[in-house]
Every structure is written in structure tokens, then in C-alpha cells.
């Protein structure tokens, strides 16, 4: 049978925070503010030689600096090596062969969109671990390898506890400091998609990974791989490029704050659901802002949603600087807060997983000013 795209961790859609499970999982995260999160799944996909694959936040140029790179470059490779030495279980970063019938084609993964849990949690500045037991190995092996790697993760987290706490707390504190006194350049990646057109001209997006490193990948002989047989006849190691780096095609510098009109109640409710700090203006205030004008608006099909049909709204914008009079009752979203990068991802109109993308500003027409403005000067203290 052909490889099926991985879906287990594609839902719930974190930025939308629409599903019942999403809202309650978010509440757990926000109430506990964990330093490390482990998310356990099972997947199928390519024919490879691993009992389990793992991953972490790969939208590293959108996240608070430190935790995601630490997980990718140190924590998870150490866990994998220690697990193999102790148990013989083979593990590696989650993904699939670029060409299912050709292991030498390279190893790639799923898009770094923040609708996926690992990437969303990366925006919050923690260490995220995604576990994917391999559905082509027997059930006992799936249970045993998941249990074993959880023990390894817990033991290593305990052994490096002070370092991990310091790393995560420091990353979040750094975001607060940057938001209180923004200095360009301080880019936050907000769009990882390369626009393309399908055969009838509809807009779509590709998310090609860039080469992170060359690796020796465990697999099976080519005949077994093509026949999709696990276990295959002979274990084989393939030297391949790992396309595990993702670079944003659009980034924005960190502002002091965002200004949301008081009429946008659905948007404000969504910000509150993500536990972002907001302040209601008691009085009218004049701000220096960057205001976006919408110069393009187009639908695109939502990726990786199974049989459901969902449409996203893609906006193209251009910015200008102006003096803008905010009204009493309008809302400030300050960037001097630990999850400010999430606020940027949600409120920038051309974000690939923001509130505009999910239809919250579909009333905005080409030629209109986008209602949410970026405050680029210090925030005046007239907010309640």
C-alpha cells in the first residue's frame, strides 16, 4: 500500500483553538507552564528500520531562542543513543523518504506550521518532544519502545533538571525583555510556505526542508523497501541528507505591542483563550504604528485535514508608518510577555497560521487597512 501522510499530531489545530480537546489541552499547558512536554503517537509512512521516531519544534526561527535547538541538537540525540545502548531499540527523527521507493533520496518531515502541537508549544518557549511508535512493528514492540524512551526522557530530564529549567525560564525572560525594549533587527518567522499554483491555477503552498546534515539512516534492502515489507530481508544503512531545517520566507521585527480594535470581540476572545496578556485602554491614546494595507486576498485549501474540506484565507499586505489615534476600549497586546511570539504569529495578517489565515478577518477587503496595528513606539500607561 502507498505511504499515507501522517495525521495523528496534525490535530488539534493549535492556533484555531476550536476543538473541545484543544481548549482543554491548552488550559493544561497554560496552568502548569511545563518546561518539557512529551506527546505520544503512532505513525506509519515510509519503510525504515526504526522502532520509533521522535521530533521537536522545527520552527526554530519563530520560537524563543534556545529550547528548540537544545532539544534537536542535544537532548533528543542523547536520549536516542542512550536508549539504543541500554535496550537495542532503534530511534530517529520523525519523517519519511522524499521518494518512498528510493531511500537514498533523503529524509524529510512535515511542515513547521504552528497548527501542529510540537511547533505551537515551541512558540511558548518550552522543550517539546513528539514520539511516534512505528505501526509496522508488532504491538508489543510499540508498547515496549514507547515505555523505554519515556523512562529515558524522564531520567535525562531529571539529570539535567537545573539546566533545563534555567534554559526555558531564561528563554521566556529574554522574550519579555525584548518586548519591553524592541531593537531591530529582531525577526520572528511567520510564514514558511512557498506559494505555488496547481494545474487549474489554485493557490497552494509547499514547505521544503533544507539540508540540516547528512546521516546514516537505518532501513531495509531496496527490494523490501519497494515491497513495503517490515521487517525486510536485510538491514541496510543509507547515507542520506536529512532535510530537517526550515527557514521562514517571511519574518517581521518585534514591535512594542499590537493594537486590536474593541469591535473585534472574536479576536479578543481567541487571544484570551491562548492566555495572552491584554490591556483595555481607559482613554484615547495616540500611537506611532505600522499599519498594513491589504493588497491581495485569496483562498487556499487547508493542508493535512483528512477528508474534511477547509479553506484558509491568504492576505498579502504592505506596511506604512503613521500616527494613529486609538480609542478608549481598544485593546493593547504587549510584547513584554513570555508568549509574545505566539501573539505575533496570531496577529500578523500574513502569518501562515494566524487568525487572518483562519478566517477571523474575512470581512477585510483588498484596499482596506488591516484592523490590527503594530505599535512601534513605547506603550503609554493609559491601559487598564
Give a written overview of the molecule:
With 384 residues, the protein is α+β, with helices and mostly antiparallel strands. The chain has helices at residues 20-32, 67-87, 117-123, 139-159, 161-180, 222-227, 265-273, 340-347, and strands spanning 36-43, 52-55, 91-93, 96-99, 102-108, 127-134, 187-191, 194-197, 203-206, 213-220, 235-243, 250-253, 257-260, 279-280, 285-301, 311-326, 331-334, 373-375. The strands form five sheets. The protein has a six-stranded antiparallel beta sheet with strand order 14-17-13-18-15-16, with helices on one face. It has a four-stranded mixed beta sheet with strand order 1-6-2-3, sandwiched between helices. β4 and β5 form a beta hairpin. α2 crosses α4. The chain is globular.
